[in-house]
Amino acid sequence: MKNCRILNIIFFTAFIIMSCKKSVAVVDNSGGNKKDSTVADTPPIDTTSVTGIHTYIQGGDTLIFLNNDPDFDTSMRTKYVNVFFIVYPEEAARFNPGTIKKVTFSVDTAYHDIAGTANGKVTFNPEYCRNNPNDVDVVTHEVMHIVQAYSGDGPGWLTEGIADYARYTYGVHNADIGWTVQPYSLTKDYTAGYGEAAHFLLWLEQNKNKQIVDILNNAMYHSIYAPSVWLTATGETLEELWADYGKNPALTEEKTPIGDATDLTVGSQISVTQENPDGYGSPESSFELNDNDIKSKFLLYGFQPGLSIRLKLKTPAVANAYVMTSGNDNPDRDPSNWLILASKDSANWTLLDGRPNESFAGRNTTNKYTFTNQESYQYYMLVINSTAGSGDFQLSEWRILQQ
Ligand SMILES: [Zn+2]
């Protein structure tokens, strides 16, 4: 969580009443999406007393649940307990099989951040829990900090990045609240930690080294993290990796479908005659058009017909196809009438394709168009003459292909 911080709280040492030592299972009251069918559907013990100490034992792990808030909903407790017994063993098995077997959750009215973890104890703000009843994977992030058990001499951004990587990978209800990792942006780098760093780690895993997160976790755990870890694992420095990432930052599941064609757009530069008022690189600027992420879009309020979008390819190439991906909402903002032109010098332009009346079958939907061309050009231009009815314009992706 953004507000997560390592607390200097003294580990709870009060005598814990083991009210029930038999193996218990927990039930998910949140209405589905249960990830692990091995979690039996027996009700949790003692759902009647709200405050006090509750103990849950399953699969060799013990969860002590403390609560001092009489208004804390017991179904909320059940959700947290359920998520714990799903994700903690998964995170432990991969990242630290020797992690502690007894974890404490404390719902504490005196705690005012979202959640924080120290010394085997996660502290939750009941107010936050109440206002965000479906954000149960706050548990997944926080208990990853217990599994990490890093000494703290590695970079904090990486600790939080790996915790959000774990939430993304092992979280049970992320989709319910639309939680995901943060795509590449020009305004933040990996040092932002959390979702920004997690997206970078996922990209590295897909593009550079499948074991990268395990290697980093191991280095952090054994207090041997050094900048050379990146070089050893990937052949590139952290800065070189970040620069590579920026050229084509989408994760596999976010990428524009292009079939068997060669994507000429990677590493291209984009420019537009009308930019989002917050500037290039801001959310929903033209940066999003060639970032190869179909989930992010370029949006213009007050679109002016004749808008031209220009791609300068890394090297001149023969293009004979392109894809366009519609935005996530408002179909009337889709382009409906456009031209494609090309140039070798950005001064003299040749018309390659024209589409007077197009539409997209759905949201975040990619259409592919082909045309005839044998010439190699470095510059390609898309001129939008009209939208599907709106005075605003949006497009998620435009990519130039050779097939
Ligand atoms: Zn954290």
Keywords:
single chain, 403 residues, alpha+beta, Jelly Rolls, five-stranded mixed β-sheet, five-stranded antiparallel β-sheet, elongated, binds zinc ion
Structural class: alpha+beta
Distance between the termini: 44 Å
Question: Roughly how much helix do the residues carry, as a percent range?
Answer: 10-25%
Low-confidence stretches: 5-43
> What is the mean predicted local confidence, pLDDT?
89
- Which percent band covers the strand fraction? 15-25%
Could you please describe the fold and organization of this structure?
The chain is an alpha+beta fold and 403 residues long. It contains eight helices and 16 strands. The strands form four sheets. It has a five-stranded mixed sheet with strand order 1-2-3-5-4. Strands 7-9-14-11-12 form a five-stranded antiparallel sheet, with no helix packed on it. It has a four-stranded antiparallel sheet with strand order 6-16-10-13, with no helix packed on it. The chain is elongated and about 75 Å long. Mean pLDDT is 89; it is low at 5-43. Zinc ion (ZN) binds next to helix 3 and helix 4.
In short:
The protein has 8 helices and 16 strands.
Layout of strands and helices, then pairs:
Blueprint lengths: L51 E7 L2 E7 L6 H22 L6 E6 L7 E4 L2 E4 L1 H6 L6 H11 L7 H15 L23 H14 L4 H10 L6 H7 L3 H10 L14 E2 L5 E4 L25 E3 L6 E11 L3 E5 L9 E9 L6 E6 L10 E5 L6 E11 L5 E3 L1 E6 L1
Parallel strand pairs: 2-3, 3-5
Antiparallel strand pairs: 1-2, 4-5, 6-16, 7-9, 8-15, 9-14, 10-13, 10-16, 11-12, 11-14
Helix pairs in contact: 1-3, 3-4, 4-5, 6-7
Zinc ion binds next to helix 3 and helix 4.
